[in-house]
Design goal:
alpha+beta, Alpha-Beta Plaits, globular
Length: 223
């Protein structure tokens, strides 16, 4: 099956995800999570990538990134995943034993306004949906915790969202996802298609030569 076209242009927002090979658990201890967050910070500094939200789960992670220049996404992801793979194999003495990740990362571009907010909520509520914690800010390894409990240095990892987060952020992020948003976000992730207003999606499809028929079944038209 041919690979889906991947967009890597400047000035766009991306949802990026990757999973461990065979869905094995690769984050087992606090040090495992801290290592990834440190590498995330290093990759950000080296590539000047903007990070809007993230969550690290036991066997996968989600990033919401806001690139500045074309090619930045690929450069950032190459630095992050290669460094993480190298460090994990060195620490576990498994160099040459196989792939850490299931394959190349998945990504799709995202509209602003309510679509970006829906995506940030989707990413930050991942541990709640997985029943790992009751409230988003209780999951130490994500942007919700950093926004609420992080010190000044820890909050530096995060960049301002082009769509401001709602007032009363803590209450908002702990309100369940809109059930209509979840299947559309997951469809965009699985197919690598843009997520946003239909007119915006159509414009992105034309601009970046993407498939125009990959829409979630039953999705209502939005303008």
């Amino acid at each position: 099956m041919p690979r889906l076209a991947r967009v890597d242009v400047g000035g766009e927002i991306y949802h990026v995800i990757n999973r461990a090979n065979g869905r094995m658990q690769i984050f087992n201890t606090e040090d495992d999570y801290l290592l990834f967050e440190n590498l995330l910070s290093e990759a950000k500094e080296l590539t000047d990538m903007r990070i809007l939200a993230y969550t690290v789960m036991p066997n996968h992670w989600h990033l919401v990134l806001y690139s500045r220049k074309g090619g930045d996404l690929g450069l950032f992801m190459h630095r992050l995943t290669n460094a993480h793979t190298r460090h994990v194999h060195t620490r576990t003495k498994t160099i040459g034993s196989g792939h850490l990740y299931q394959g190349r990362y998945k990504s799709f571009i995202v509209d602003t306004d309510k679509y970006l907010l829906a995506l940030i909520k989707y990413v930050e509520r991942n541990p709640v949906r997985a029943k790992l914690v009751r409230n988003c800010e209780n999951w130490r390894w994500g942007s919700a915790w950093r926004r609420i409990y992080g010190d000044k240095k820890q909050k530096k990892l995060m960049d301002p969202s082009p769509t401001p987060l709602p007032h009363g952020y803590t209450k908002w992020i702990n309100t369940p996802d809109n059930k209509d948003d979840l299947p559309v976000i997951r469809h965009a992730l699985n197919k690598g298609v843009p997520y946003g207003r239909d007119r915006w999606v159509d414009a992105m499809v034309t601009k970046y030569h993407l498939e125009s028929t990959r829409r979630a079944a039953g999705r209502p038209r939005q303008v």
